[in-house]
Design goal:
The protein is α+β, with helices and mostly antiparallel strands. 21% of the residues lie in helices and 32% in strands. The chain folds into two domains: 2-140, Sandwich (Immunoglobulin-like); 160-188. It is elongated, with a radius of gyration of 30 Å.
Length: 200
């Protein structure tokens, strides 16, 4: 009996254990001028995870760079891979750095963490996996010497109709539906003309 309980607890722990792989951001280094923005991405993998996970991100705040993620959190289904996208911007009044690279340009690095936990709401599945020291590296230049790796831009939000516009569109749809229903009923109720038989 004790063995059954022991193996049951082990199986329960294995099922509830959260595992997630997080790749380093791409590109490994962005080249940007002051006030310029660049895009980056990283991947969250749940290839060995039997359940979906919910991940959030937090910046360590160790640089003057402005970093924004497209979404505050991301849901990654079990046994899948999902990219997370973000934007980094160089402020106009970015502070001078004491250390420079070999070409005399300032290099800044902002690190962030990814925290993932079970998204299935299973009781007891509160194990959080934290992956930290993920670097976003930016070389601040006065003139571009190369193109950065292409990362898709942030999708634009769907345009929202103002309230009067929504009401007008809804009324038009209702009127069209009423007219169509009336025409359909009228045609069905209209008696068909009878044909007179010809006398021989």
């Amino acid at each position: 009996m004790k063995k059954i309980i022991f193996y049951g607890l082990v199986a329960l722990f294995v099922v509830q254990f959260v595992s997630a792989g997080v790749t380093n951001p791409q590109p490994t280094e962005l080249e940007l001028m002051k006030t310029e923005s660049g895009r980056f991405k990283f991947q969250i993998q749940t290839i060995t995870n039997p359940s979906s996970i919910l991940c959030t991100y937090s910046l360590e705040g160790d640089s003057p760079l402005i970093v924004e993620f497209d979404d505050d959190e991301v849901l990654v289904e079990a046994n899948t891979k999902k990219y997370v996208y973000g934007t980094v911007t160089v402020p106009e009044n970015i502070e001078q750095k004491i250390s420079f690279d070999t070409q005399g340009y300032m290099v800044f690095e902002e690190n962030f963490c990814v925290s993932c936990g079970s998204a299935d709401g299973i009781a007891g599945a509160s194990v959080q996996i934290n992956t930290c020291d993920l670097p976003i590296t930016v070389r601040v230049v006065s003139q571009r010497t190369r193109d950065n790796m292409y990362v898709p831009p942030k999708p634009l939000p769907a345009p929202e109709l103002p309230v009067p516009g929504i009401i007008i569109v809804s009324l038009i749809i209702v009127v069209i539906a009423i007219i169509a229903s009336y025409v359909y009923v009228y045609r069905r109720r209209k008696p068909k003309p009878t044909r007179r038989k010809r006398r021989k």
